[in-house]
Amino acid sequence: MSQTQVATENLVHVSDLVKDYDELRAVDGIGFDVKRGETFGLLGPNGAGKTTTMRMLAGLSPATDGSITVAGMDVAKSGRDVRNVIGVVTQHDGLDNSLVVHRNLEMHGYLAGLSYREAIKRTKEVLGFFNLESRANASIHALSGGMKRRLAIARAMMASPQLLVMDEPTTGLDPQSRNRVWEQLGALKESGVTIIMSTHYMIEAETLCDRLAIMDHGNILDIGEPDEVVRHHVGAEVAMLQIGDSATREERAALRRQLEEEGRDYSEVGPRILVTAPRGTKPDVSTLTDIVEMRVTYRPAHLEDVFLVLTGRELRDE
Predict the structure, then answer these.
(1) Ordered DSSP codes for 46-90
(2) What is this structure's pTM?
(3) How many whole angstroms separate alpha carbon 86 and alpha carbon 161?
């Protein structure tokens, strides 16, 4: 494939991106591409650098070093033109509580460059798409958390952007509201919208993302399709070792030594030890069962296990 074809296929190109805050390096030289029509995720715990990266992508915060291009435009040099093709949904909805629902959308559309007539027409379209027609005249205070989140996404879609940048799109929502948002994000993808989203919800990343980057401490630890990343790092299944209460400290230490001597990938989560085997194999723990009393169960591997293997801690850890 030629460089021209690659450039056409990729809507976003990030290269050697750095962000410093005084002595803190929040983003440390990361790079990735996002294809047109793709949903790309940044997965990691709070403090991983996801929000900082999203703010730089959206042109809301200047990069210390490196470059970002969107639709062939340099974000640092053509910020206004880039913002014309991006819709942004921040962690905080930022809705105007003094305006009813439809006026929030109309005002945003007008400020985004639509004529007043176009803004009214587009408002009706996005209200219908997000199933909010019945709430058009409602006060923002009267909306549930899920409705506010859908309205924030609807507002970002007023100018029909090529790229939707979303920071933690479903944080704080109940499961039913989260599923509703997921359905509508799926519909946006089917309509050709490219989506970049950050999340610390493993199931959200697995459900929505075509590809994802796992981040921690401002670095990207791996990039790939969710299933591909899981198979590469932790295989198809995870062995969970539940050590009995009667186990002595010496027995527990002997188990850890055996795991290390055998070169096992393992993580301790409370009273459990999770043992993984990469490349699609199932962990064989038969050599461990005589060391200490334990109960062994298996479950399918998922992205949380990948994060444990790569960082030694869970996604929800601060």
Answers:
(1) TTSSHHHHHHHHTTSS--SEEEEEETTEETTT-HHHHHTTEEEE-
(2) 0.87
(3) 5
